[in-house]
Amino acid sequence: MQNTLSPDKWITNYADYLFSYAIYRINDREQAEDLVQETFLSAYKSREQYQGNANEKTWLTSILKNKIIDLYRKKSRTSKVVITESDYGYFFNEEGGSHWNNLTAPKAMPISGLESLQQKELNQIIDQCMELLPSTWNQVSKMKLIDDEKTETICKAFDITPSNFWVIMHRAKLQLRDCIEKKSEIA
Amino acid sequence: MEALGSKKLMLNCKEATKLVVIKEFEKLSFKQFIALKFHLLVCKVCALFEKQSLELNKELKKIEEEKTFVLSLEKKEEIKKLLNELK
User: Fold this and answer.
1) Could you give the CA distance from residue B76 to residue B78 in angstroms, rounded to a whole number?
2) CA B61, CA A147: separation in Å to the nearest integer?
3) Chain A environment of B72 (Cβ under 8 Å)
4) Model pLDDT for residues B8-66, shown as the tens digit of each residue
5) ipTM value of the model?
6) Between chains, do B18 and A170 touch, taking CB under 8 Å as contact?
7) Do A177 and B53 touch (CB under 8 A)?
8) Would you state the torsion angle of the CA atoms of residues A161, A164, A165, A170, taken in this order, to the nearest 10 degrees?
9) What is the predicted pLDDT for the residue at A1?
10) Torsion over CA of A165, A171, A177 and A182, rounded to 10 degrees?
11) Whole-prediction pTM value?
12) How far apart are the C-alpha atoms of A72 and A25, rounded to whole Å?
């Protein structure tokens, strides 16, 4: 089936969706608003190129996604992402052969499959912890974990090497997991 | 990744957890695969990390889907106006 575009309904149908998509990935309300605006405008200007293979929503999202990647790229040009192999000391006892420190070694905790109210509370904690990551780690992890983006694409967007990419993913996951555990203990 | 297990078969927990994270998305080399398998067999803490990491990935996707924001009416009107100007 061939899909068609209905620009008159774009704002009603997709503005909130695209805004949510953008704000979750760039953590900046104003920039997210601007990106949504740019997305609609450039979509409208290039509506002739729409092939109808993807549905309207997917098509608009892909335009927004490219704009988000452009924004990451611009930012990485002005402030280089610095990654050091050090600072693992909080998690691993570097002198003792890089095994877990007693205090930060993972403990058993529920993460999924909880009763709905509890899961909701836990997901709030997970979300808070995600936002506590340094912003580049946060964006890099979201691109991989949520959007299943190719490693190569992410490396280009942030101007990092694959080995830096995996250091970020590793560090982000360690920190995220630890944050969730500590916050759920208090809750 | 290059620092990992090229010669040795014994991983420490720092290396093992890194391979756990990589394995979620990429195929490990045979040596890495075996070394990790062995480590996870004897190290319950890293095995727990692996389990929780996978659960987290799933939950993060759900959280993103459920998270919704509303674009302000002013901004919506502004975009509508701009779109009309293009017509």
Assistant:
1) 5
2) 9
3) 33
4) 678 999 999 999 999 999 999 999 999 999 999 999 999 999 999 999 999 999 999 99
5) 0.90
6) yes
7) yes
8) 160
9) 58
10) -150
11) 0.90
12) 10
